[in-house]
Write a structure and sequence with these properties.
This protein is 34% helix and 18% strand. With 330 residues, it is of the alpha+beta class. The longest helix is centred in the C-terminal third of the chain and has 18 residues, at 264-281. It is elongated.
């Protein structure tokens, strides 16, 4: 049992060498029972230097095989330190800063951070939402007025939304509320229900456009049936009233709260996302935007975790997550 760590100093004391990192990773991934990544039903033989042999395939492997650490030349101590800094800093860390912190090149730090983000894209981190859910979209990307003149498209001016990438967000509220559900009527009386939710959770997805054909299937897959959903007046959300109790606010008329109806929670998340991108990363490409959104989503959903619990949560999800540099920049 390792001691709880709450700071970088504690982390270094907890993992003073490479072997201590390997032992901790084996415990999280295998729970004391080594399993072959080539054949899960195969018998495994322990070999020297933390290696194992798969009986059925005859292949050798270790705990890093077929994970984000596969074939890495960076010591696990540096990986663990990078994960600690990356997951505990509220707005993340840039590859330039991380390169200085753990003494690697900027290119290595950039690849390392993307491997960690790749581990964030895990089903355990994207649970379905229920009870009271706020839904909204935002646009990520710079304004055309800030581009260099030689990079502007013809007749491109100001805040051109078609140049930006839309992101759909759904946030399950943390509240205990008594609400009326008009569609639930028993003996001519409207049923009142008490809704109790856990800590608010967010689920976000980069989408190609804002059409209802694109966003409604995502909402139906993410938000449980018979929930209360809250949106603004955007017309693509109109059909939600067929499957949910749909409450709206009219932002166009400068209405931001209508009794319990508002989207302030998800808009607060958008603020953290955009401030993080603008202040730390400055710019992200459309190709990698989902990875950055996953990063901020996991950090938000684990904000009530201890530093160690968040650290172990990500480490436990690194299996079957091998990412090569060639595929990353493809």
């Amino acid at each position: 049992m390792i001691p709880e760590f709450k700071s970088i100093f504690d982390l270094i004391n907890t993992f003073p060498n490479e072997q201590s990192c390997i032992d901790h990773l084996e415990k999280l991934i295998w729970n004391g029972n080594p399993m072959s990544p080539f054949d899960k039903d195969s018998k495994v033989y322990k070999c020297a230097n933390n290696k194992y042999k798969c009986s059925n395939t005859g292949k050798y492997f270790n705990v890093k095989t077929n994970t984000i650490f596969d074939n890495t030349k960076v010591p696990l101590q540096k990986w663990f330190l990078a994960l600690y800094i990356f997951s505990s800093h509220k707005k993340g860390v840039s590859s330039h800063q991380l390169a200085k912190d753990i003494t690697v090149t900027q290119k290595t730090a950039w690849f390392l951070l993307h491997r960690l983000r790749y581990a964030f894209d895990h089903p355990n981190f994207k649970k379905t939402l229920g009870n009271v859910v706020e839904i909204d979209e935002t646009f990520c990307g710079g304004d055309a007025k800030n581009k260099h003149s030689n990079k502007k498209n013809k007749n491109e001016k100001g805040n051109t939304l078609h140049e930006k990438q839309p992101v759909l967000g759904m946030l399950e509220r943390t509240e205990s509320e008594i609400i009326e559900r008009p569609h639930k009527v028993i003996k001519n009386k409207t049923v009142k229900e008490k809704i109790v939710t856990k800590e608010s959770q967010v689920n976000c997805e980069v989408v190609p456009n804002r059409s209802k054909e694109t966003i409604l299937p995502i909402i139906y897959d993410t938000v449980e049936n018979d929930c209360v959903v809250m949106t603004d007046e955007y017309t693509a959300y109109k059909d939600l009233e067929n499957d949910y109790t749909h409450l709206k606010v009219n932002h166009g008329a400068k209405e931001y709260v209508n009794e319990m109806a508002h989207t302030n929670g998800i808009e607060n998340f958008w603020s953290h996302l955009k401030r993080g991108i603008d202040g730390i990363y400055h710019w992200v490409s459309k190709a990698h935007l989902q990875s950055y959104v996953d990063e901020f989503t996991l950090r938000f959903n684990t904000r009530c975790y201890t530093t160690q619990n968040r650290f172990d949560l990500v480490l436990s999800a690194v299996s079957n997550k091998h990412l090569t540099y060639k595929n990353l920049i493809k």
